[in-house]
Amino acid sequence: MITIVQSDITMLEVDAIVNAANQVMLGGGGVDGAIHRAAGKELFNACLKVPEVRPGVRCPTGEARITPGFRLPAKFVIHTVGPVFRDGQHGEPEKLANCYRNSLALAAENGCKSVAFPCISTGVYGYPIEDAAKIAIQETRNFLKSHRCIDVVFCCFSGYDKRVYDELLRKSESTYERKVDVTCSMEANIPT
Ligand code: AR6
Question: How many angstroms separate the CA atoms of 94 and 87, rounded?
Answer without folding.
Answer: 13
